[in-house]
Amino acid sequence: MAQLDIQQKLEILADAAKYDASCASSGTVKRSSRDGKGLGSTDGGMGICHAYAPDGRCISLLKILLTNSCIFDCHYCINRKSSNVRRARFTADEVVQLTLAFYRRNYIEGLFLSSGIIRSSNYTMEQIVEVARSLREDHHFRGYIHLKTIPDADPELVHQAGLHADRVSINVELPTASGLRRLAPEKSESRIEGAMTEMKSAIIDTADATRKYRSAPTFAPAGQSTQMIVGADAATDGDIVRKASTLYDRFGLRRVYYSAFSPIPDASAILPLQRPPLMREHRLYQSDWLMRFYGYGANEVVAAADAETGMLPLDIDPKLAWALKFRGAFPVDVNKGPREMLLRVPGLGTKAVDAILAARRWRRLRLEDVARLTVSVVKVRPFLIAEGWRPGALTDLAGLKTILTPKPKQMELFI
Q1: Are residues 103 and 219 located together in one domain of the fold?
Q2: Which of 31, 216, 332, 363 could form a disulfide with 337 if both were Cys (CB 3.0 to 4.6 A apart)?
C-alpha cells in the first residue's frame, strides 16, 4: 500500500464509510465536560455526518472506516478482497487524533467507526477497541462513540467494545440465510445472531447492575443496531419486514437500518445490474415505524404488500395501503375511538393522536379541528368520523386510492 498522508486517508476512508447507514446516535446517556474534566459531550453540535435524535436534534459524527482493505470477498461490498479500489488504512492513534482534532474545531461531537477485516477478525476488533479505549481512558473523551463490531471476533473483544462505546452494531447484511450464503459465503447467520445474543445479554445484565450498584460500569447505553441491504438478493419486502420484526423481538435492537443496494465497480455477475428504487428503502423505513410506534404487527404490515410479489406499493405509504385493504376497520370516531385505532388512520401521526386524546376530554372535535393537526385532511376524511362529519360511501369508494395517491410534482430549481 502506497504511503498516504492523513488527508488522503481521510478522503478514501470517509468515502468508503458512506455505504453504512446505521450511524444514528440517539438513546445514549448524557455526559458533558462542563465540570472541567474530560473532553466532549453527547449534547448538541454541528458537523460532518448528520444523524438525528428522537427530538429532531442534529447529531454530527466523524464517520470513517479504520481500513477499506478486507480479507473477505462479499459480492455486494465495494471493499471486498477482489475489488479494484484504492486502499488506505488508519492506525488506531491516527483515528484518535483525528477525532480529537475534529471535536476541538467544533466539527463533530462523536465518532462512528467501522472497518474492513485485516489479518483476522480478532486483530481488526483489537484495533477498533483500542481507538475507543484510548479516547475514553487516555483522553477522557465524553462524546458519542458508535462501534461496528465483528461477529467472528472473540466475544471478550466484542464485550470490550460495549464497555467503551455508546452504541454497537452488528450487521446481519442480508434479509435471508440463503441470500447470505450466496452473496457472503464467508459470513454465517448463526455466528452473527450468536454475537447479537451475547450483546443483548450483556446490555441487560449491565443495566440490572447499574440499577443496583452506582459504581457499575455502563455498557452500550444506546443499545445495539443492525443493517440490511435491500435489493441485492431476491428477498421481498415481506421477507425484510418479517426479518426486522424477528430481530427486534429476539435481540432487543434499537434500530434496524435499510440500505438500498448500489451497483459497484467490477461487480460480480450474480448481482443485479440496477439498484432498487430509493422509494423502496423509504417504504421499508415507514413500515419499520409502523411496527415500532404505531402498534402494527409484522404480518399486518406484510398484508399491505402485493399478495403475488410480496412488495409494498411505491406510490402510497404502507399505512394507507393497509387502510385501503382493510376498510372494514374504518371509519374511526375521533371523539370515541381508542388510541390504537386512531393511530391507524392515514394522515394521523403519534403527536396528532395524542393531541386529539387530550383535546376531546374537554369538547367534541370537528373535522376542521383535526385538519389543524395533519398535513393533509384529504387523506384523513375517508377514515374518520367527527362532529358534523361522516364519510358515508367515501370510505368504500372504488376509486379512493386514485384520489389519495399523491400527484407527481415537478421539482423546482429555485425555491
Answers
A1: yes
A2: 332
Q: Hey, how many other C-beta atoms are within 10 angstroms of the C-beta on 406?
A: 11
Counted residue by residue, the chain has a size of 415
Instruction: Mention every residue, 6+ apart, whose C-beta is less than 8 A from residue 331.
Output: 382, 383, 384, 385, 390, 391, 395
DSSP string, 12-33: HHHHHGGG-------S------
Q: Which helix (H) or strand (E) holds 198?
A: helix 189-212
Domain extent at residue 400:
326-404
- Partner residues linked to 258 by β-bridges: 228
Rounded mean pLDDT, 12-24: 76
Is the CB of residue 404 less than 8 Å from the CB of residue 369? no
Q: Which helix (H) or strand (E) segment is 368 a member of? A: helix 367-371
Choose the final residue of a domain: 191, 210, 225. 225
Q: How many CB atoms lie within 10 A of CB 264?
A: 17
What pLDDT band is residue 45 in, cutting at 50, 70 and 90?
very low
Query: Do 186 and 57 share a structural domain?
Result: yes
Give whole-number Cα distances, 27 to 55, 196, 355, in Å: 11, 18, 25
pLDDT computed for residue 3 by the predictor: 82
Query: Which strand (E) or helix (H) includes residue 111?
Result: strand 110-114
78, 85 contact by CB (below 8 A)? yes
Instruction: Indicate whether 107 and 221 sit together in one domain.
Output: yes
Q: How many domains does the chain have?
A: 2
Are 143 and 198 within 8 A, CB to CB?
no
Residue type at position 157: L
Mean pLDDT of 122-129: 96
In our burial notation (b when 16+ CB lie closer than 10 A, e otherwise), range 179-199 reads bbeebbeebebeebbebbebb
CB distance 384 to 332 below 8 Å:
yes
Is the peptide bond preceding residue 331 cis, with omega within 30 degrees of 0? Answer: yes
- Tell me which of 192, 225, 258 is where a domain ends: 225
